[in-house]
Amino acid sequence: MSSPSPHAAPLPLLKGRVLAFAAILLVSANLRSAVTSLTPLLDRLGHVFDFGSGMTGVLGMMPTAAFALFGLATPRLIRRIGLERAAALTMLLATVGLLLRASAGGVGMLLFGSAVALAGMGIGNVVVPPLVKRYFADRVGTLSTLYITVLQAGTMIPALLAVPMADRYDWRISLGMWSLLSLAALLPWVLLAARAPRASSPDAPAAAQAPGRVWMTPLGWGMALMFGMTSLCTYSMFTWLPKVMVEAGASETTGGIMVALYSAVGLLPSLLVPALAVRMRNPFPIALLAFVLNAAAFAGLLWAPMQAPWLWAVIAGLGPSTFPLGLTLINLRTRTPAGSAALSGFMQGVGYSLASLGPLLFGALHAHSGGWGASFGFLMTCTLVLLTAAWFACKPQQLEDHWR
């Protein structure tokens, strides 16, 4: 358990901690539903709306593009309206976007609804860490473990239910039912936002103060590159692991199971890493272990994919341990909600911008070379960048000491 922080939430906020606890977990459960509820149905929707691989690619790139754009824009939004109102806006946009997408009569509305929902989720990615800092500064490790685990579960469950629900009912039900969950998450934030002072008020918390320049600090770039390289490798594996296995001789079903196993194993770091990170003065050994796991998985998938496919999937699923590490370090390397919001926005904005290039470059290298050697070589290079960045991100320091 992390020790109480001198910057813990002020007494008036403690009265809302139970409601904030539920609200943070509900938001976390919604941060990927617009992504993983759609991707299993893209082939079916292509037949319904008569679009091909080009539009499928556009829909596939929208999440990382939205997360990058709103990662960079959200700290300014937080300074204007405050954390609680930004969280409420997150779930309002998600609810509206999911409903618009489920009622789409053509590709245009499908794209527009997806954009609205992903905008909300992009804001939510940035808002959650400073909310943890504001309400639970004395329990950063515990809350980080909980919200990251809920986020991972919220990534898996819509993907598992998408096709069965579409088969049993309709694709509109399958896509639209997640709006009920985002609506449930909206309600507690409306209550919390009504209690919170406006960002322009003299009683507003430090999150409303003007931040320093995160982009001029080694910590900011270390966090952004560590997170970006982690996400780049993860999205590349999500996109291309089935094809790697099929070309090695596995069935399409096996390829799909490998991705599911890769995703499921990712729950373990979410449970363990935040608790470990808060107990370590310098958690760089976690990043070093992640580097070794990535290297082993990439080598196995390249040189012996069918000799131990399940082992490679498990090792690869443990590789992105730097994802929960990065989210936890947002609060461990800042003193205030303002610092947490600024670091969260910069890390995720730059990180997701880099991540959006991963699947594209991985596939382009495969198409150019005819094999997977160049593609996995590219991922290994990215993991070396990740390890170097983690050296700066994990060093004991506080953002506020360097960002002015």
TrEMBL record:
CDD domains linked: MFS_NIMT_CynX_like (cd17339)
InterPro entries named among the record's database cross-references: MFS (IPR011701), MFS_Cyanate_Porter (IPR052524), MFS_dom (IPR020846), MFS_trans_sf (IPR036259)
Domain of life: Bacteria
Keyword ATP-binding: no
Segments passing through the bilayer: 57-74, 86-104, 110-132, 144-163, 175-194, 215-237, 257-277, 284-304, 310-330, 342-365, 371-394
Alphabetical keyword list: Membrane, Transmembrane, Transmembrane helix
Sequence ranges assigned to domain Major facilitator superfamily (MFS) profile in this UniProt record: 18-398
One Pfam family hit: MFS_1
Protein known as: MFS transporter
Organism: Stenotrophomonas mori
